Amino acid sequence: xxxxxxxKDKIKVLxxxxxxxxxxxxxxxxxxxxxxxxxxxxDEDELIRHxxxxxxxxxxxxxxxxxxxxxxxxxxxxxxxxxxxxxxVDLKAAKMRGIPVFNAPFSNTRSVAELVIAECIMLLRGIPxxxxxxxxxxxxxxxxxxxxxxxxTLGIIGYGHIGSQVSVLAEAMGMHVIYYDIAKKLSMGNATxxxxxxxxxQQSDIVTLxxxxxxxxxxxxxxxxxxxMKKGACLINASxxxxxxxxxxxxxxxxxxxxxxxIDVFKEEPASGNEIFEHPLQRYPNVILTPHIxxxxxxxxxxxxxxxxxKLVKYSDTGSTEGxxxxxxxxLQPNDSKQRFLHIHRNLPGVLREVNYVFTSKGIxxxxxxxxxxxxxxxxxxxxxxxxxxxxxQELKKIPHTIKARLLY
Length: 409
Description:
Rossmann fold, Alpha-Beta Plaits, 3 domains, five-stranded parallel beta sheet, 13 helices, 31% helix
């Protein structure tokens, strides 16, 4: 391969919140040795002071990359979210500065699914309350309100990667599985698709949520939805805190319309273990509360560390944006014999013509060109047979509506 425009050991990487060492090891093995590794999250002011010298930043769920932070990151070329969610990043702000954001949508699927199945068992057996009483010295030995999950109906709202994995495990345990998703999905095993969310709520002994946080899903489960659930049913939320009205859920538990709940995600979560966690559901012994640990297994974190690091390295090495959540996707392989230029610009008429003119006006042959656009940006990758100096990069940057331009190698 031709000489890199910026040597890998000069590309500065900031990894926060103790992301798994797999990420550090993988990037180091791939030549990215200038890595700063921190075990804690940074607040906005710390990030603004710190981020200006870094080209790549990796975070988990507590660090917030706000518009102010992104604006301060003048050298930033990519962000890695070592998590499923990306709501901790202002995706539009990153996109409009030519910064793709990558995550790990699949790596902790199994971990979340296993927790949900475990919670199904514990809720139907009344384990939370029995455990609490045993710690108090009370012996609550009874079969009253204690059930097997075999033969019960599990309703899944959101039948994506996690929801469908829950479906497979639940059926293996002998449960009848029904589900609802706004998009048509292929049923796993004998699971049955429902025509509406209401149908799932009305028929299920346990309802589990596996949906993203969007304008459409904000407070999706409120008082009227909870009233539609069967008396004595249970609710599990391991998706996003914003999708459930927890005050309404608290009331449904209080009046014993629901027999219990298991909650792993909350609208407001402590930034660290040093902060006090308070929630209206804490008063109920038949509610399982866990600190957003659905995907927090060693296996999941190891997989996430490798998956996100691979995407960051691939983008830095080749310009490939495959797997980016806020950016047009271009799948590329390295090209050992060509010189590669990357140009990100506002998607306005005439910009691509100007990009091509920079090369054609000099009689330079464009060996390959890759372009993807959306409503906001255009991303073009140009391979040439030339061996140009960096002056042509300055010409590319001067083109009106340019967001970012790089000479890759």
